[in-house]
Amino acid sequence: MGSRGIRTALAGLALAAAMAATACGSGQTPAPAAGGGVSGDVTVFAAASLTEAFTKIGKDFEAAHPGTKVTFNFAGSSALATQITQGAPADVFAAASPATMKTVVDAGDATGVPVVFVKNQLVIAVPKGNPKGITTLENLSKPDLKVALCAEQVPCGAAAKKALDSAGVKLTPVTFEQDVKAALSKVKLGEVDAALVYRTDAKAAAADVDGVEFPESAGAINDYPVVALKDAPNKTGAEAFLAYLQSAPAKAVLTAAGFQAP
Amino acid sequence: MAVDEIHHPGAAATPPRRRGQRRIPVFLIVPAGLGLAFLVLPLLALLLRTPWRELPQHLAEPAILEALRLSLLTASVATIFCILLGVPLAWLLARVEFPGRRLARALITVPLVLPPVVGGVALLLLFGRRGLIGSWLDETFGFTLPFTTAGVVVAEAFVAMPFLVIAVEGALRGADTRYEEAAATLGAGRWTTFRRVTLPLVAPGIAAGAVLCWARALGEFGATITFAGNFPGRTQTMPLAVYLALETDLEAAIVLSLILLVVSVTILVSLRDRWISSP
Which of A94, A107, A183, B75 is in Cβ range 3.0-4.6 Å of A226 for a Cys bridge? Predict the structure, then answer.
């Protein structure tokens, strides 16, 4: 409890210093409107599946707001949530599941209500050319197939379980991977014949894998909520990034990556 | 720990040294104290956050016991494997002049420098289904290492063996070679000398190396989850279980880490009492 108090005090101090610096530098009240008053580092904690899309959006954001620098921390949503609730300094949190976002909101670390900005759906990732001819979810339960799933504790695993359960498909994977990128890399390396991953991940790895769509994935769509954090060192930066996510160019990048509009 | 000094072997034969009256240099005691605090305080922070009441309940969970059993088994088998190959390797590096010895010595430290996850990928590229050796194993015997308990042992041994080799090589280089020369003069062959003279001489070094190796293997995470995957009862060791528990429940993860910690410390302390301080 004592250490928490010290941490809060330190964060407050850093925030005060940052505000003082902004006030001295620009001499105007910070406004969340695009283009004005935004500067400095914006730290975004984002789910691993957002890696490609957010890296692009971050570059576009920096171009739209000269003087800003976006730094990303991409990892499994749950690991990021733990880091945030343990006091990691971040401005924005984008999670791959509402359940993970809830742990951050419940801990009192968010400002406002999280907004769902995209949805993602599972596909079956198979090696390029689909050598085993997998076309349906049922195909995965063939005994001679090696399948990788995400662990149930991470969002892609929870979605996979939901999809398999609703389809009534029983399958024993060879491994429960720690995140969606790990599951995908097992397909890329040829160690498994198939894995359930997000459509966006299959798309990002299109050079090595094919994504097989299956109807049951509609029953296990993942919402991606995003929120500004209470202890954000750069509050105006956080607001500006959230606003930019709703802009047409950002939406185009997200759609191109395979995400669906909410 | 004052007991140690009283029972010190030969303490009765030699006159007591007046160690206590010498001043301890402040330039040593301050960094030493800081070093100790640096290593112990994070552990203390962990202990303070431990929900002790939940401990017995977690200990009774079959899944936890399964992961613990698998961890102890694989770390021990990996250590035996490392001793069988690592001690001869350390001997070769310490005692035999051969071209490329410096390079070989540098290469065995590679697994120490390599991020374990990359080590896991490297193992997949060698032993995986499409790997250099793995594809041959798969086609000839229909056998693949990834996703098996044997795969866990391979991943742990890959990461832990350098610790053993470096410790044993250091012991060999520090050991007095005149005993070996005397044995050779008396007509012992190299194998006999190694077995009857060198091995007993560096036994403490081997024990220390084996402990380091076992401890590293027990805590192995990155190479294991990358190469062997994560499947309860087959490849899910304690560190993997801890990592996944961390995804949803910090308290449970702390409890799991503590169980691993208590079990490993208990084993190491009891081994130490039996093997190291008995002679």
Answer: A94
